[in-house]
């Protein structure tokens, strides 16, 4: 009986160790420090759609804008009042190219950032981990941060995130870093 129980626990442990690791969050401050101190060993990617960047803002601290999901303006969800967003089919290849241009491999630290951290930041980081990248994190609360839950500015993204943490940003995107479809 002990042998059977030990075998089952060992089997479970082996299965658990094979499962994909989840990406961990880093704060905007930690991200900026990493980029400033170890920038040549880190790939920092803004994974938002470039049109979103145009309206919300950009930080030149990122290496590149490589969208994880791109807006499909031909498909509109009437119920949610939003356009469909599909995974960028070239995302992994574009990340590989960006790493190669910095002389880095898939074991280098990659940090992704979206608007809120949860819709594309973490999913894009997990997506890369599932595809063989080994050290991927995402910016907690993303570029714009969370919405206020009450008060006169309820619903506005005015807490945490890159913009609200005093990190450098601009209303203009760097034309050398912004994504353009091939």
From TrEMBL:
Residues 160-173 have a biased composition (Polar residues). Residues 158-182 are annotated as: Disordered. InterPro entries: Rhodanese-like_dom, Rhodanese-like_dom_sf. Residues 38-155 form the Rhodanese domain. SUPFAM superfamilies: Rhodanese/Cell cycle control phosphatase. The keyword Metal-binding does not apply. This is Sulfurtransferase. It comes from Marinobacter halophilus.
């Amino acid at each position: 009986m002990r042998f059977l129980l030990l075998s089952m626990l060992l089997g479970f442990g082996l299965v658990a160790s094979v499962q994909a690791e989840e990406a961990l969050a880093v704060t905007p401050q930690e991200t900026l420090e990493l980029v400033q101190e170890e920038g040549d060993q880190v790939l920092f990617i803004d994974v938002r759609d470039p049109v979103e960047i145009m309206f919300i803002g950009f930080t030149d601290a990122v290496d590149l804008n490589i969208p994880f999901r791109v807006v499909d303006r031909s498909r509109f969800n009437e119920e949610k009042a939003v356009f469909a967003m599909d995974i960028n089919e070239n995302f992994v290849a574009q990340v590989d190219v960006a790493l190669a241009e910095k002389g880095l491999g898939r074991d280098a630290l990659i940090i992704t950032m979206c608007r809120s951290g949860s819709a594309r930041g973490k999913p894009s980081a997990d997506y890369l981990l599932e595809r063989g990248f080994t050290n991927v994190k995402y910016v907690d609360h993303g570029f714009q941060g969370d919405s206020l839950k009450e008060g006169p500015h309820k619903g506005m993204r005015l807490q945490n995130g890159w913009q609200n943490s005093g990190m450098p940003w601009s209303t203009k995107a760097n034309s050398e870093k912004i994504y353009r479809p091939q």
